[in-house]
Each structure stands twice: as C-alpha cells, then as structure tokens.
C-alpha cells in the first residue's frame, strides 16, 4: 500500500502565512509520497534554486526529492514579471527511494503561452510504483490534449502509473472518457470539489485498474486555493 498527498501550493500567494499550515497538514496526514504543483523558484521571495518544495522539506525531512522546472514565467509572461527571474514546476517528496526520474515536456498548444510537462518517478515502497505528476494548462482546449499526450506516453512505455495532480479539466467525465477502461478516477470513486472558490473539480488521481483505492479524501483545510487530495492505494 502507498499513501499519497497531492496539493497545488499556489505559488507564493500569502505563502508566509500558509507555509506552516501546509507543513502541519502534511505532518498530520503523514503520507509516503507528497506531490506538488505550482512550486515556485522566485527571486522576489527566495534565493536562486531554493524552490518552495525544498523550503517545505526542511521541516518535513523527506529523504528523497525530485523537481521539474517546467515554466519560465519571466519569459512566458514578460509584461507581468519583466526582468524578475521566476520559474515554476512540479515536485515529489518521498519516504522511499526514487529509483528513476523522467522529465517530459508536453507539446505546447497553439495560443497557450505556458509550457507544461510531466514529472515521472519510479518509487520503491512495498513494490515499485510509477508516479506521474501533472499540471496541465488552465483551459480544456489545452488540458485535454495534455492528458491524451500523457496517456500516449504511458502506453508507449508499457507502464501502469498513478497519474496525479492539477488536470485543469472541469468535467470529470472527460477525464474518465480519455482514461477509458484502464484507470479509475478519484472523482468516480468519491465525488468532491477541489477548487472551492468556483466549486470546481480540477485535481484528480487516476489509478490503473490493477490497483484500487483503499481510502480517499479531499481535505477542507484552508492551505491553498486548491484542496489537498489524500489517497491510500493498494
């Protein structure tokens, strides 16, 4: 069994206030693996290279860590950030050995100003799990092709991963349709709202059919604009 907590940490929005809350939440849940999106390395707030996941892990002390710097916000939104060096990506913290890491850039869709990518890690718990952390673009014109491309990546490598993160897909049935019969969605297992300000579902856990949810929770703790997902998977 593996216990995973997923959270979009919302970059540096009120992070000084939210940081101890995020740390407390993760400690209370005590997951084997933590997956994070919108992890910033922003020179306005931190020294270069000291991204938010590393800052959190100074208090959490997970022995294994992976990070994929996906977006260069300075280049992608120059009118907003100017000369300010600001990058963002996905991270994994793990109690158990990370055997392999693959960082895969997804195709940049027309009119999408952001780059997206997936962070794929093989992690040895009671057995080896493939974990893919995603953060797709905030528009289904972009996010649905991103999911399709991720599933193609999985098919080509003949793996059966847990796919987790901020899908930015509002219609849970679209996720189910694309995943077809090979995956079970956390939303189908138990309905929830993960983006409360708009009463939307943006965050999902997909598990291959050979695994099952032992438990699943969408937490109500106010630590981000997204709610954390916590699953025990067997």
Shape: globular
Rg over CA atoms: 16 Å
Unreliably modeled segments: none
Roughly how many Å apart are the termini?
4 Å
Give the number of helices.
7
Beta-strand residue percentage = 35-45%
Output the strand order for the largest sheet: 3-4-2-1-12-11
Predict the CATH topology: Deoxyribonuclease I, Chain A
The CATH architecture designation is: 4-Layer Sandwich
CATH superfamily: Endonuclease/exonuclease/phosphatase
Average pLDDT taken over every residue: 94
What key attributes describe this structure?
six-stranded mixed sheet, Deoxyribonuclease I, Chain A, alpha+beta, 234 residues
Brief summary of the model shown:
The protein is an alpha+beta fold.
List the helices and strands and how they pair.
Blueprint: E1 2-8, H1 15-29, E2 33-42, H2 52-60, E3 64-72, H3 73-76, H4 78-81, E4 86-94, E5 98-105, E6 117-124, E7 128-135, H5 140-157, E8 162-166, H6 172-179, E9 183-185, H7 186-189, E10 203-208, E11 213-218, E12 229-233
If you had to describe this structure to a student in words, what would you say it looks like?
With 234 residues, the chain is of the alpha+beta class. It has one domain: Deoxyribonuclease I, Chain A. The chain contains 7 helices and 12 strands. It has helices spanning 15-29, 52-60, 73-76, 78-81, 140-157, 172-179, 186-189, and strands at 2-8, 33-42, 64-72, 86-94, 98-105, 117-124, 128-135, 162-166, 183-185, 203-208, 213-218, 229-233. The strands form 2 sheets. A 6-stranded mixed sheet has the order 3-4-2-1-12-11. It is globular.
């Amino acid at each position: 069994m593996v216990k995973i907590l997923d959270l979009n940490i919302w970059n540096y929005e009120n992070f000084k206030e939210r940081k101890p809350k995020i740390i407390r939440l993760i400690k209370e849940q005590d997951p084997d693996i933590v997956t994070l999106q919108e992890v910033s390395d922003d020179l306005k707030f931190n020294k270069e290279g000291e991204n938010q996941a590393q800052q959190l892990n100074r208090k959490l002390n997970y022995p294994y860590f992976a990070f994929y710097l996906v977006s260069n916000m300075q280049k992608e939104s120059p009118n907003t950030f100017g000369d300010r060096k600001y990058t963002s990506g996905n991270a994994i913290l793990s109690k158990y050995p990370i055997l392999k890491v693959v960082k895969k850039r997804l195709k940049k869709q027309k009119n999408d100003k952001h780059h997206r990518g997936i962070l794929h890690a093989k992690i040895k718990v009671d057995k080896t799990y493939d974990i893919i952390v995603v953060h797709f673009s905030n528009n289904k014109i972009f996010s649905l092709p991103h999911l399709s491309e991720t599933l193609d990546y999985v098919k080509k490598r003949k793996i059966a991963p847990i796919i987790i993160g901020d899908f930015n897909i509002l219609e849970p049935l679209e996720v189910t349709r694309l995943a077809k019969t090979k995956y079970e969605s956390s939303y189908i297992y138990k309905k929830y709202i993960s983006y409360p300000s708009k009463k939307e579902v943006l965050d999902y856990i997909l598990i291959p059919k050979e695994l099952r949810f032992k438990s699943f929770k969408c937490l109500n703790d106010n630590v981000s604009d997204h709610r954390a997902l916590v699953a025990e998977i067997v």
